[in-house]
Write a structure and sequence with these properties.
The protein has 14 helices and twelve strands. By secondary structure, it is of the alpha/beta class.
Length: about 350
């Protein structure tokens, strides 16, 4: 016969010689002591719980604590052509969020941008308070962020255009642009061509500013900026390749641009790192495996997600002040495409 929660808790308490309160805390993961006696005590409780088939009731716990221990996660973009398949670089961040929350006995519930901005009425997840807070990831329109903050005051933003002093996590995009330009100059390249992005994300402007400032500070006389549209048309890239020589470094917003340049240049028997320099201001998930030779900026997106989750947990655990925003610097990976001139 199935036992009630109260009887089960007391059954475990009697079998282990512990109080019902201690048993309850162990079963919901609130006691994570590393002392040998604490570990052994937890093992005894878990063994008895498994023997009688007892599982803590999330619903009962939510009623008692007024918390669901669930955090909403919304991956967004303001670019009209973006599809989930084009946002694979976000998965690493999602893993960082999920693993940190899971370590603290919280779950993640995926949400759609439509759920907060275009719905005729708020979905059940908001009407019935099924989440304790929200994490928003990606290039998010301001009206969406405003709506999120309205319906979920406890929120954290990752890589959005809303760079506030609190509750935001982002990469240092200016430093990424500056770093690849400084590395190119240090390697001896005297001409720099920068291929800029086309989206409205703050990284486009910041990376360009970093590259430009580094070139100005180094006295690079021949510095050019090429704006590449979403079509990645061959004509635009061919026009760049027409200008390259051994003293030219082609610096690019992202790896897709670098791949396009390298592919078209190879048709002319031009090799990056030999006949011209090539470096990207970011690294996506699979770049380290598929193209380890590329000079690039590496960011730990898993760590970024983990930091955002810790910010959220702090708010849920009662921190009275919003967490200070965090800007993460990347690491330059030399590769072989930006060799000394």
């Amino acid at each position: 016969m199935a036992l009630s929660r109260r009887n089960s808790i007391h059954t475990i308490a009697e079998a282990t010689g512990l109080s019902a309160v201690t048993v309850s805390r162990i079963l919901v993961g609130k006691t994570k002591g590393l002392r040998r006696d604490a570990v052994e005590r937890a093992r005894r409780v878990e063994a008895v719980a498994a023997e009688i088939g007892f599982r803590p009731s999330a619903a009962a716990r939510s009623i008692k604590s007024s918390r669901t221990r669930t955090v909403g996660l919304m991956i967004t973009t303001s670019h009209p052509d973006a599809k989930p398949a084009n946002l694979t670089h976000q998965y690493e961040t999602v893993l960082g969020i999920e693993e940190m929350l899971a370590d603290h006995d919280h779950s993640v519930l995926m949400l759609r941008m439509h759920d907060v901005i275009d719905a005729v009425k708020l979905p059940r997840v908001f009407r019935e308070n099924l989440i304790d807070g929200m994490i928003v990831l990606g290039d998010t329109p301001d009206r969406v962020i405003d709506r999120v903050r309205e319906i979920s005051p406890k929120s954290v933003l990752i890589e959005t255009n809303r760079n506030q002093l609190t509750s935001c996590v982002s990469r240092d995009e200016y430093a990424a642009g500056r770093e690849i330009a400084e590395q190119a100059v240090a390697a001896g390249y005297r001409r720099v061509i920068y291929l800029s992005g086309f989206s409205n994300h703050f990284s486009v402007e910041q990376r360009l500013a970093g590259v430009r400032d580094a070139c100005v500070n180094a006295g690079v006389a021949d510095f050019q900026v090429k704006n590449i549209d979403s079509e990645l048309s061959a004509d635009r890239f061919d026009a760049v390749i027409d200008q390259v020589d051994r003293t030219t470094a082609v610096l690019v917003y992202g790896v897709a641009y670098a791949a396009r340049i390298a592919h078209l240049a190879s048709r002319r028997r031009l090799v990056a790192g030999v006949d011209y320099g090539l470096a990207a201001a970011e690294e996506l998930v699979l770049d380290a495996l598929s193209w380890p030779e590329l000079a690039r900026i590496r960011n730990d997106r898993w760590h970024m997600g983990s930091i955002a989750a810790r910010m959220m947990l702090g708010q849920l655990d009662g921190d009275t002040s919003p967490p200070a925003s965090v800007k993460l610097a990347g690491t330059f990976v030399p590769g072989l495409t930006l060799s000394s001139v």
